[in-house]
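Data deposition worksheet. Section B asks for the primary sequence of the deposited chain exactly as it was used as input, without tags or linkers unless they were present during the calculation. Section C holds the resulting structure in token form. Section D is free text for depositor observations; keep each observation to a single sentence. Incomplete worksheets are returned to the depositor.
Section A, Depositor: J.P.
Section B:
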Amino acid sequence: MVSRIREARRSRDWSQTRLISEMERVAGRQGKSLPSRETLKARISRWENHHAVPDEFYRRLLREAFGLDDHELGFVEAALDVQATAIEELRIRLVTDPAPDENLLAALASQTDAVRRQDRQYGAGRLLEQMRVHVANVEQHLASTAMDSARRPLAYVLADAAALTAWQALDLGAADQAWRFFDLASSAARLAGDGQLYAFARLEQAHVLVDLGSPRSAADLATSTWESHHRQVSPAVRCWLAAAVAEMLAAAHESQAAREMIATAEVRVEALTGERPPYLVFDAVHLDRWIGHSLVLLGDPEAQPRLRNVAEEMDASFIRASAALHLDLAASLLRTNVLDEARAELSIAERMARKVGSRRQLERARSLRVAS
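Section C:
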């Protein structure tokens, strides 16, 4: 086992003191107490210098503090030669485990939905670890099921859960982990035979490329997914896809193409009042906010009035989305040199982002602070 704690810490420009603060924050959410900072600093030094390894309690704190998994932190033991045992376990599992019934599928889907509702209001920080365990559990059910007729509904549940987990990881700044979970989501959606969920996962994955500084690749992925899937999805999902493609094109400074996709989304807004899949938390107000964001990326002055209207209608429980809205207002105000109001919007956004632990939004706020 080779700890990568130092690597994870330095990639975030964290001192050991900052890591201790993050661990204390996670422990506080769990109602756990930690030893003194001096003791923690000594332990971290021992972990980073490979003189000791963290136990499961500290591994959990570190996973949540960094938003990384055991593999990324170097906590996975080298595999032992247990091939015979593994084969026997597989034989037993495939022979004795029953195929998932409707009750199990409903329970697994409900678990994803419950986390999704909490995520909107409280953020990903306290939920990512739970979702990683949930995804692993669904994967285990899928691995223990032989017949495609039983595997497809499980794969749908897995795709939905993995896509949510990926978005949470991205919000916590773990782009590499987000990419892997989006890959899992799209693969599972293909196994489920659900082109709609596949297109959703791929468009979400494009955000990772933007965050990694590759908006052109994100735009290419988005337009390719739109061209191959927009005729196969429901009207509501088509509206969402169009708005997502518009954002990616705007990020790549493809103004005309972005505006065409904005128009495509707007003419389908009435579809958002109809039936929507559970993973599509999206309505007319969110569409307006999203279009406002794309207009900010395009430097369009029409962004400000649109975003102000959305601010009056936005559901206050969508804290992370509200933080993004205020960041967009701040960006637009900075562009027009309205500095005092821009800084006020930034302060609101930062307060909201801290409340839900959104490192992604806080990083954007930091960049705007530098510009202000």
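Section D:
The two ends are 45 Å apart (CA to CA).
The mean pLDDT is 89.
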